Amino acid sequence: MINDINIAGRLVGPGHKPFIIAEMSGNHNQSLERALAIVDAAAAAGADAIKLQTYTADTMTLPGAFTIEDEGSLWKGRELYDLYKEAYTPWEWHKPLFDRAKERGMIAFSSPFDETAVDFLEELGAPVYKIASFENTDHPLLRKVAATGKPVIMSTGAATVQEVAEAVQVLREAGCQELILLKCTSTYPATPENTNLLTIPHMRDLYGVQVGLSDHTMGVGASVAAVALGATVIEKHFTLRRADGGVDSAFSLEPEELRALVVESERAWLAMGHVQYGVQRAEEKSRLFKRSVYAAKDIKAGEALTKENIRVIRPGLGLAPKHYEELLGRPASKDIKAGTPLSWDLV
Predict the structure, then answer these.
(1) Which end of the chain has fewer CB atoms surrounding its CB within 10 Å, N or C?
(2) How far is the C-alpha of 109 from the C-alpha of 179, rounded, in Å?
(3) Which residues have CB under 8 Å from 253's CB, separation 6+?
(4) Could you check whether the bond before residue 315 is cis, i.e. omega within 30 degrees of 0?
(5) Signal peptide: which range, if any (predicted)?
(6) Is the CB of residue 224 less than 8 Å from the CB of residue 264?
(7) pLDDT at residue 59, rounded to an integer
(8) Residues contacting 161, CB < 8 A, separation 6+
(9) pLDDT tens for residues 278-309?
(10) Of 283, 239, 265, nearest to 34 (Cα)?
């Protein structure tokens, strides 16, 4: 049985609507005013949480260490250090962003990228921690996060089955009792073809934990489908307008799209229901509009029922259509007016 997880008063689990996380990442474009506006827009769209990233360029890499040359990358030609310098969220912004989220009735948390970031987030009272895909093999960081005793959400992108299993074991042994894994494809953007949502129920059964989706595809289709496969958490990058630019803007949702995700993912969750056959209470009135056998012409007593004087039509007040062939050739027991639903006492 998969247990619910309480994240700052919000129950997350199969019996609750999906937990929607708006990932700000670097879409603030180094403007605190814009970052606060992103929080406001995410709350207005109905997201449950806003997620930040807590690092500095210096905690991630060194100047001159690496330049991205991948032809398929949005960041081709950019030096890694400069990219992180542009994308990082200044640590002094975290408290006003956390406070704004709380004012808007939304949860704020972050992905720490080193142990100093965990200490900093603990001072802010972060209610949950996110482990990013590229950090899911950083066992010292995993132990540090697990030791807080807070719930952990971990992306599984760019990791082998063995690496995920090791990460889960490290977290559990270090004190993590509430864990959610996110299926993730660490390409930016991801394609529907490499998203492989069928992994979600398999991963849930394999590790015995809740599983969600960290979705880097365009639009909301993959996320809605993930909910139908049992995802309890959806994380999507979020911006005010893709046209404003930013390191992650190309595959980020805009406010009206995030609202659509909130609405449609909940509809998908509600629609899953349970295994059901037969007539539901809501359908009972609709049974009237099934077909049945009616007299199509006036029929005299003793006259045989034929294809010319009886028909299968709506509504369903007469004998069921399955009796049509059985009725043909039988004599009417009394006069039958055209438009009368047939019943056994009439033949």
Answers:
(1) N
(2) 15
(3) 22, 220, 236, 237, 238, 239, 261
(4) yes
(5) none
(6) yes
(7) 87
(8) none
(9) 999 999 999 999 999 999 999 999 999 999 99
(10) 239
Do residues 18 and 269 lie in contact, with contact meaning Cβ atoms separated by under 8 Å?
A: yes
CB distance 116 to 122 below 8 Å = no
DSSP string, 16-28: S--EEEEE-TTTT
pLDDT tens track for 240-250:
999 999 888 99
> What is the SS3 assignment for 220?
coil
Distance CA 188, CA 155 (A): 14
DSSP string, 48-66: SEEEEEE--HHHH--TTS-
Residue whose structure tokens are 């802010």: 124
Task: Specify the length of the chain in residues.
Answer: 347
DSSP string, 144-176: HHHTTT--EEEE-TT--HHHHHHHHHHHHHTT-
58: closest CA among 7, 138, 129, 116? 116
Please spell the DSSP secondary structure of 289-341, one letter per residue.
GS-EEEESS-B-TTPBP-TTTEEEESSS-SB-GGGHHHHTTPBPSS-B-TTPB
